[in-house]
Amino acid sequence: MRKSIAEHMHNSISSTAQLSYSLEIDSTEIQKLRQETSKAHNQVITTAHVLIKACAETLKRHPEHNTVLVDGNILYFDEINIGVAVALENGLIVPVLRNVEQKDIFQISEETHALTIKAREGKLMPDDVLGGTFTISILGTIDVFTPILNQQQNAILGVGRSTEKPVIRDGKIDIREMMTVSLTADHQVIDGADAAKFLRRFQQLVEHPSSLFKKESTDS
Question: Which of 51, 106, 117, 183 is most exposed by smallest CB count within 10 Å?
């Protein structure tokens, strides 16, 4: 697996113009809401689930990050299929959540949990890891890192750990839960201004996250 990962990363870097952009985001509200929601619905909602939902909503607004470059042409995906990096003992694997734009956070929670179990038990099928259009990689042990693009994708979001920090709000020092996110994008396709807009929109959703927790109606 390690050899395959190395070849994949080398091919990715050699065929793209990768640039990374970082932003510190206040995650205090998502920590509060996810805990309240988990208790109210008797279902575990993690920070990762919230961020996956926020990515999907941001990609709707900024579809240039949900593209592939083929023979010099930029092709837009009709679906938002988000790969979620899962660390294994002998490497890293990226199972894919499909049609995330159509799912609420509860469906995302269920499907992510099922895929993670399959990954760690070595039971993933080829269809479980193919077809990703965007990737999110979460490392909860470090503050910031630079993610490398997956092949056939033009953007990836890396998320560092969430930690309490003193923050100045309304002229006063407040203790807030903060995390750093890093967006790596192929500059052949995505300009710096577009990457900045993506991060700002993502920041808005994470810092004011109530809309991310809405449960979709199952009525026909």
Answer: 117
Q: What is the DSSP letter of 212?
A: G
pLDDT category at 220 given cuts 50, 70, 90 is: very low
**Active-site residue, 187 included:** yes
Distance CA(168)–CA(188), nearest Å, equals: 37
DSSP element (H, E) containing 157: strand 155-159
Query: How many angstroms separate the CA atoms of 164 and 179, rounded?
Result: 9
Identified catalytic residue from 8, 41, 113, 187: 187
| DSSP secondary structure string for all residues of 166-186 | EEEETTEEEEEEEEEEEEEEE
Cut 0.85: pTM above it? yes
Phi-psi region of 52 (alpha: psi -120 to 50; beta: other; left: phi over 0): alpha
